[in-house]
Amino acid sequence: MSSGSEWRARGSAWLRAHPVARVTGPGIVLIGFGLAVFFGLLDAVQERDDLSAADLPVLEWLVDRRGPVATRVLEAITFVSGPMVLPILVAVACGAWAIVRREWWRPLLLVGAMIGSTLISLAVKGLVNRPRPPEETMHLPGSESTASFPSGHTIGAATLLLVAAYLTTSRRHSRGRVVGWAVGTFVGVVLVALSRLYLGYHFLTDVLAAMALAVAILGAVTIVDRVHLWHHPQAGAPPGQPATSERGVPGPG
Question: I need a labelling partner for 65 at 20 to 30 A (CA). Which of 174, 177, 186, 197 fits?
Fold first, then answer.
């Protein structure tokens, strides 16, 4: 047996002997990665070095290239992903999900993730208290009064798309479904982040930090969901249908 195959065999045997690690491992990795990136960006912002050195050049480059059509499109995106519209859309979508699919677990997880992302964003904004970009770069000067780091629009959109993608593909996954959600999530998050940069309301590190926090939130959701399914395999399955086994989550004991 080659050394690589031997290590894989040992790893599989260890996971079989430690089911809790198998259940929580993916989420722990996501949390660790997200927080590592976030704190790296936070350090750059506080020290005003590394990637934060690109904040003003990127902002000014985008502002210099504003056009009427792109501005209108990105205004619409930033409006829909904002605190007035996005919560309503999430509430309606989750309510419809619960009624149509006759389940509560996954819609509740999505709502909880969105509430968590809002609270985390507000807490970090208050602690870091980073000023917004100069008003002369804003499309509507003075329209944003909260702190800049991280971007609330971006963390909300990224959390929504990442968690929704996980919840909808983890039970019944196929290559087409996974690829579709991956592409849609990437495009959606990039468009929201771009709208905040293009309109002059955030710096590059603000939106990247928001994405990193959304990944950490996804990790927490993954742990909660997988632990719940470990103990309650029928959670999220429509009435009369057996629990799916694609997730590979071992049962307790």
Answer: 186
What is the rounded CA–CA span in Å between residue 108 and residue 117? Answer: 14
Residues 6+ apart with CB under 8 A from 66: 139, 198
Residue 186 confidence (pLDDT): 96
Q: How confident is the model at residue 176 (pLDDT cuts 50, 70, 90)?
A: confident
Q: How far apart are CA 130 and CA 209, in angstroms?
A: 13
Q: Kindly give, in sequence order, each residue whose CB lies less than 8 Å from that of residue 21, ignoring residues fewer than 6 positions away.
A: 14, 15
- Is the distance from CB of 212 to CB of 51 less than 8 angstroms? no
Is the pLDDT at 53 greater than 60? The verdict is yes
Cα–Cα distance measured from residue 181 to residue 184, given in angstroms and rounded to the nearest whole number:
5
* Distant-in-sequence, close-in-space partners of 33: CB < 8 Å, separation ≥ 6: 215, 216, 219
| Angle, vertex CA 218, rays to CA 230 and CA 23, nearest 5 | 25
**Taking the mean position of all CA atoms in its chain, how far away is CA 215?**
5
Residue 158 in tokens:
């990224």
Average pLDDT value over all residues in the chain = 86
